[in-house]
Amino acid sequence: MGVVSLFRVAPEGTITSPKGFQAGGLHCGLKKTSRNDLGVIVCEVPAVAAAVYTTNVFQAAPLKVTRESIASGGRRLRAVVVNSGNANACTGAQGEADAYAMRQAAAAAFGLGEHEVAVASTGVIGELLPMDRVHGGITGLPGAVSGSGEGAEQFCQAIMTTDLVKKEVCVKLAVDGREVTIAGAAKGSGMIHPNMATMLAFVTTDAAIEPQALQALLGDTTNVTFNMITVDGDTSTNDMLLTMASGLAGNEELSPKHADWDAFTAAFRHVCERLAMSIARDGEGATRLVEVKVSGAVTDASAAVIAKTIIGSSLVKSAVFGADANWGRIIAAVGRAGEPVNPDTVDIKLGDIVVLSASRPVSFDEEEALAYLKGDTIAITVDLHNGNGQATAWGCDLTYDYVRINAAYRT
């Protein structure tokens, strides 16, 4: 039986579907619109927690607070409070004090210890949070949370900035004969690039799992999912992927030695991969999701570099937007990736249409290619015939709307 058959997608599931979790959101005045801008996920028990963060040198204050909470709390959390509309990044000592104040206020509102609370922010960089509004909003959060789909909906709305759609996914599987649920919610649309991106993502599960195993799994999974997407080549200051495991499913504690570990890791990867793809598809101004599969590289790591170079190429992205089967831009990206490539053995396909074979042009139907490139999802396949390494990356086309959105993001 294949690993993927050991879990099932639960389309009705949300971030609150795993046992023990509630969520909610509300509008406290951080955004100019009336959309929610403050949210929270709460667990009824101390949940095993793990996180990964942006690699940007300039890291926002909430990341420091969350790191401290996870370390000081024995890798366990009860809640994460999130605001959108303001990144609380590059805000100095005052911004750091405000992030700690958010943690303190959320802990008081829900009757938790301060180190049981994580903090995340997203939005405009370089502006101080209006803390009177934040405090007022946090005071109202306990009355806004629920374990229903409505609570999850309000949370998803609260973390969005330029996102056009909410991003969530849920799967279920059996561990020790017990039903285990894994669910995720994310935001991200612009400033998206491998090695984390301007994104916040939250994964909840009711599985019992060793803290070290969860952190290792999160890191490994991030490398092949969230670190393989790009929208515009920019890595932000606030990126965070946080996961919490309540353990309320009642299974024996998961670790790599557990008989059901492979099924759990496959399900966990599916959640992260689908969230990552949703972020790429919802790239600012995007009209198409682009998937690049590279095979035949000398190593998986080499394939990943090449795939990310192709998906990050402004020329490739522009050609996709224009429905132009310009394979020359793809081969040029392969050649400048800095990885071992045999210049005489590269094959390229657009969907099922072969456009290059053994690094030589192949006659193809331009009208057929045009029709394919006008579709919603574009697959670019590159076989290097140089080894067994393979990798997949996701991105989107580059459109006029991307410039329009970002030309006036702050104003």
UniProtKB/TrEMBL annotation:
Pfam families: ArgJ. The active site is at T198. The record marks T122, G123 as: Involved in the stabilization of negative charge on the oxyanion by the formation of the oxyanion hole. Catalyzes two activities which are involved in the cyclic version of arginine biosynthesis: the synthesis of N-acetylglutamate from glutamate and acetyl-CoA as the acetyl donor, and of ornithine by transacetylation between N(2)-acetylornithine and glutamate. NCBIfam families: ArgJ, PRK05388.1. Pathway: Amino-acid biosynthesis; L-arginine biosynthesis; N(2)-acetyl-L-ornithine from L-glutamate: step 1/4; Amino-acid biosynthesis; L-arginine biosynthesis; L-ornithine and N-acetyl-L-glutamate from L-glutamate and N(2)-acetyl-L-ornithine (cyclic): step 1/1. This is Arginine biosynthesis bifunctional protein ArgJ. The gene is argJ. Gene3D superfamilies: arginine biosynthesis bifunctional protein suprefamily, ArgJ beta chain, C-terminal domain, L-amino peptidase D-ALA esterase/amidase.
